[in-house]
Amino acid sequence: SAEVDQVVALYEDGSFYYTSPNDNRLTLWDYVDDDVVPFENQKEPREEDFRRGNGSVDLEAYLEAKERYTALQGKELLRLQLKAEKLPVETKSLYYYDGQSDRLIAGQITSVEEWTEKKALLCNGFDPEGREKISLSGITSVDDAKEQLQQLLGQWSAPLYVSESLEAPLAIPMESGASSSFQGYFTEDGESVAYLDGDTLFRFSVGNGEGKTEMIDQGVKELQPLLTQNGKKTGKNYYTKANQEDPSKKDIYLDKNLIAQKAENLTCYDTSALYYTSTAVGEERTLYRWQNGGSQKISDKVQSYLLTSSNQLFFLKEEEENQEGGSLYRYE
Predict the structure, then answer these.
(1) How far apart are CA 127 and CA 169, in angstroms?
(2) pTM for the full model?
(3) Strand 134-135 relative to strand 32-33: parallel, antiparallel, unpaired?
(4) CA distance 210 to 165
(5) What is the pLDDT of residues 176-193, one digit of tens each?
(6) Residue 33: which H helix or E strand, with range?
(7) Contacts 24+ apart (CB under 8 A), 237-245
(8) Do 166 and 143 touch, CB atoms closer than 8 A?
């Protein structure tokens, strides 16, 4: 079995996923398109090879051949250097142990974001297949390759849907190309993923070993998971959109169901959501808590609120118009 770096998902049947350090990390060469003639079997040009019938040397042709040879020699050295230069991002291999034996699931993982009881994982990693690569002909040095690599690194990195039932990880498509800022969470079925691509909310699901993408909504500003009291994700997800009448305010949805309009702020905790409403900018704000399908008013004239790490809610309330500051309350 492989060296265990970290167990990332553990199941009641005794199976688990774990990561292992990558001894054979990707190198810069893995992301280079070799479009240059191989140097092997190249013969170094000699003046004798360019001697004319009258005994003189075609110096121009000889120098051109010499220059081509030197360039190919330099590219061969660069090949060796690129093959030795590790990718500037550490990756790990992901394995699945079924209780009897383990097998490699994914080879270039940078992080595991979350997992479900359905043995599906959401990871970040590299998916070089079909992606644009750097042309060897356009590289002058290792440093040049690193600079070009940095520009393309975001294209090669991808959010990955991983499962022991799949032959290989599936890259979740990001049309905006902003995979480095991927925001997504598993849905209630434990097998599909809700995620933002730009301002469009999608659902990624898997069937017959292939991924399928479905648009849920557009104009989405943020996406947050609904959590249980101990911070575990429930599979339901909040998202917000700009209110059509007042774009400075937001409408809040829970899995496409509208739960609040013209709201300000959004804090999710303990299967609940906290948010303000106010009739106009600068007017007093009312603090609400949404839970179990309905919204409950906590207080009017709320200046601010604080949710502690133990989910205790405190809020500052304005008592009188001429009074500076306010009174601090704890919500039971």
Answers:
(1) 9
(2) 0.69
(3) parallel
(4) 11
(5) 765 556 888 998 888 899
(6) strand 32-33
(7) 237/185, 237/187, 237/194, 238/266, 238/268, 238/273, 239/196, 239/201, 240/266, 241/217
(8) no
